[in-house]
Specification:
Layout lengths: L2 E14 L7 E3 L5 E8 L4 E8 L2 E7 L7 E2 L4 E6 L4 E6 L3 H33 L19 H4 L15 H12 L7 H177 L1
Antiparallel strand pairs: 1-2, 1-3, 1-8, 3-4, 4-5, 6-7, 7-8
Length: 360
Amino acid sequence: MGEQPIYSTRAHVFQIDPSTKKNWMPTSKHAVTVSYFYDSTRNVYRIISLDGSKAIINSTITPNMTFTKTSQKFGQWADSRANTVYGLGFSSEHHLAKFAEKFSEYKEAARMAKEKSLEKMELASSPSQESPADIHSPLTPPVTADLCRINGTGDDVTLSDVSPNSMLQPDLSPTTPTLAHSPTTNKHWEAELATLKSNNAKLTAALLESTANVKQWKQQLAAYQEEAERLHKRVSELESQSSQTNVIKSQKTELNQTIEELECTLKAKEEEMVRLKEEIENAKQLQTQKDELTKKLEDTDLRNKELEEQLVDLEQRLESSQVDQENLRKNLKTLLEILDGKIFELTELRDNLAKLIEDS
């Protein structure tokens, strides 16, 4: 499947100042996407980040790397291949913890992949030969760990360590007393001894051949290492090119998602604008009604002032009328008093006239 992104986050990217080795230099003006990539064909994990078309992080994770949290939102790791130290500033402590967790997980995976690769190289460099000592008689001493390493590196065994005399010496000493028991037993031990000598001769030949093979394997291994180093450099160049393509694809996908989100937001804003226009029209109608009501209120206030003036005038007239009525009442009372006096006088006059009439 090639190299694919397996985890992505966003962070501000920094690199250590190569001159001071102390100060941080920002390599991105804003937060960028930082992704873990996995190459299934080579079992390699990498951290890649692009700022536009420029790769600002291209770090292959190795088992000896360590990601260090220096604050609640900042972490760093050293890349000996790139001869630099990378730093990431996250927006929250949760994002930093998640990135550190993924770093430890992929570092462990890289370590296991490296161990499996070394095991495969060891198996490929070891010949699949069956040692003649694998088949031995009951009197044949067991093959020790030194002999088992004959097909390995060849550095742990020498020809003097497994000479025929050294292998036959311990076998013959314990069996010497038993050779005189019977001719049958004697023949059996002689046949066993011949078998041991044959096996020792084969082992010696195998050791000589293994020693020669080890030298040849060392030469081949050195050539393979040089070829592997050259291929590694070439792969690094190709990785840099392919990572840019993969990250660009990832960014394209993110941009498409962002465009879809913006389109949805734009549609929602258009609907909001239509609703606001309707509200503006309603507000205009309400404003017109308000103006009409304000004008009516002003007319009413003016009418009220006129009525108040009329009321004041009427009150003044009423007060004046009340004064006039009071004066009229007083005058009438005075007239009644005078009239009463006159009536009393007339009554006395009538009485006097009546008396005069009676007397006459």
